Amino acid sequence: MKSTLLIGTRKGLVVCKKKPSGWKIEKVHFDAIPVSIAYEDERTGTWWACLDHGHWGVKLHRSKDKGATWEELTAPAYPEGTEIKEGVAAVTRDLWAMQHGGHSNPNRLWIGTEPGGLFRSEDGGDNFKLVEPFWNHPSRTQWFGGGKDYPAIHSIVVDPRNEDRILIGISCAGVFESLDAGENWTVRNQGLRADFLPDPHAEIGHDPHLLLAAPSNPDILWQQNHCGIFRSVNGGASWDELSEKDGPANFGFAIAVANDNPDQAWVAPAVSDVHRVAVDKALCISRTDDGGKTWTAFRNGLPQEFSFDIVYRHALVASGDEVVFGTTTGNVFHSNDRGEHWTPISNYLPMVYSVHFAE
């Protein structure tokens, strides 16, 4: 069972440790600096922190000793002369997703950025290079910003059976798949719906909020989408909508999938894209145990009056029986029974951007 939580917030990286009495905050790193993503590479135990200094730009830090010391690395940067569109230089504005490249590629790391560039390292993160075949995909002229000023990659899925096969989620464009570590790409948006487009079923322009593969069956993919909850049982070749018609499980940002059951998943419902608060101002986490056929909203231990909480894309995680999420109002909640009952870890943190289980 994992004993550490890495919580990226608007004002630092909060590290929590599991104690006999429950989860306790142990330390804060990068005090007062926004941490967009905090991530542990499970292959090596290395911690990563992606920082956003605002005026000073993005920074990338690495710790090989569980936070005792940190080293700053060169953050992914677009080659000189690269443009988002004619006359607009491509500059790294956010580091929004991080994923290791698999056990057969021990030095490979992936980072997704705004404005829509995917970067790969083959030397453990010492250097990152833009994956130019993706940046130069002919559909890029149709991409647009969703939640960011420009398109942004928030999800990277590496298939453990073939680690050159990756899928990425990008707002707003959709899901793309590569079978050769980024050299060639196929659009995987069949069955998705984009109500905000003139053609809701257009090939390009969808807004997956988060894309995940079921750890116990990587052919089963889940996404919390701007327009509902979707699932693929064929590796992304097609998608089916699983939104709850008469309940809260519909719009949201985050999704988590059980380690041991590809049919079990959690979402954090919000009202809508233009009304981003908890449904009925009563915070809940909804869970399905049957692949999205039915959903149950769990509320025990969560605020049920005047809750303005929403949960960002990377701020809901599950590991075994434990589920943890953080909210935009600085609440962090923990469940040890797969979301049926909740207890607070803290009610006083800054806005939470990401939550990640670590060893």
Put simply, the count of helices is 1
Query: What's the total number of strands?
Result: 30
Physical arrangement of strands within the biggest beta sheet: 3-2-1-30
End-to-end separation: 8 Å
CA radius of gyration is 19 Å
- Overall shape: globular
Question: Mind describing the biggest β-sheet?
Answer: 4 strands, antiparallel
The share of residues in extended strands comes to: 35-45%
Helix/strand/pairing class, anyone?
mainly beta
Unreliable stretches (pLDDT < 50, length at least 5) are none
- pLDDT averaged over residues: 97
Helix content: under 10%
| Oligomerization status of the protein chains | single chain
What does the model show?
The strands form 8 sheets. The protein has a 4-stranded antiparallel beta sheet with strand order 3-2-1-30, with no helix packed on it. It is mainly beta. It contains 1 helix and 30 strands. A hairpin with a 4-residue loop joins strand 4 and strand 5. It has one helix spanning 132-135, and strands at 4-9, 12-19, 22-29, 35-41, 46-52, 58-63, 71-73, 83-85, 88-89, 94-100, 109-114, 118-121, 129-130, 152-158, 166-171, 174-178, 186-187, 208-214, 217-225, 228-232, 240-241, 252-257, 265-269, 285-288, 296-298, 316-319, 322-326, 332-335, 343-346, 352-358. Helix content is 1%, strand content 43%.
